# Entry
Amino acid sequence: MSSKQAPPSPPPGAGQPIGEIDGALVFKTVERPDGQDYFYVDRELVIRTDQLREAAATVDLIVLEGASPIPGSDYSTVPVDSRRHPVPELIDTLREAGLDANPHHVLMLSNHTQFGPHDAPEPIEPSPEIDAATATLTAASAKGGKVVVIDTGVLPRKLTRDIHDSNGLIYAEPEQPGKLAGKKIAPHIGHGTFVAGKVLIDNPDARVYVFRPRALNSTNEGDSVFLDDKDLAIVLARALAHMAELKVKGKIGFDDALTVAEEAASRFEEYDLEIPRALNLSLAGPSHTPDDMNPLKKTRPVLSVWVKLGVKVVAAAGNAHRNDPFYPAAYDDVVGVGATDEHGQIAGFSNSGPWVNVYTNGVDILSCYLDGGDARSYVEVPMYSRRRTTKGKWHGYARWSGTSFATPAIAAMYA
# Structure
């Protein structure tokens, strides 16, 4: 009789494990000397393709046979044996040798923060403010521009009603959290619903399309608040194909993502199709590249296709109270959005810096959320080991804080 063995403990220096993506552990580094901790996928590095052999000669844990070029990039992903030496240590060793080595970056939904009290949705009792929001949603004209939202999907009608009654919600991939009664609410539940609702409340003429990355699972199990560079590239390609009415056989994989995106982009002019006006990305992650630029080697080529079409890409700055660049908000051709408080000051949790293009209110934002049932304990992301208990009942709306919810206010302006 065999028993399942526990996975080996990560070596010292790996950081704190916070979850898995495709069977690989996701880590958050802990107390780096430069103070700039980051998230990464274990057992993989991103290295300049023309430096792979030199890297393998420098670090014998690199598996050259598994190297894979990143389409549209000068870099390749390469597996590493990180059981003896953690990824951050390998990167430091390679950089000391003058090589361009990077982690496989991971992004977080930007409602989560280790600072400030406003990190959980709060229920709202029926009020004239809710009545006004409901009236705005149900009276939506759907005659404005198209806004694409990449997020957790939209909760089903049985869990939230008003957003489904809006003419402005044109397409929404579902978030199916399952039975929530009597359970703690995972931190990602309702995030996409809240973001899409904010766009429509701020601009009832907008037409909203919501797409959900595979990595952001739609159940109430676990803490699916993050996605990796590869998954973001895939969902961006899939969303653009949908908007361009391009039918793709089978699932889009990472190797196909850039080709699909470029083919989709060509169709807008060829068939005189309407180009989306804004792309909302309420997610962010810190950079750990030699120059703190372009950490998203897998996403960047596909994102550039959107930019070249003329779509305004609007991204959350993140909530770590830091001023080093977070991506994709820090790209020059992306509108990075920070949050202000009720006094018009930069919110205590918001990232800031010259790379943030605009600030708008991100504290106690009202938007669509669960409808019916008692509010339950809200479990924060594992790396902060925090919980908050929310009391009251859900009435279809909530107040929530974060740069995630400042971002759709800006996206709505472009619709």
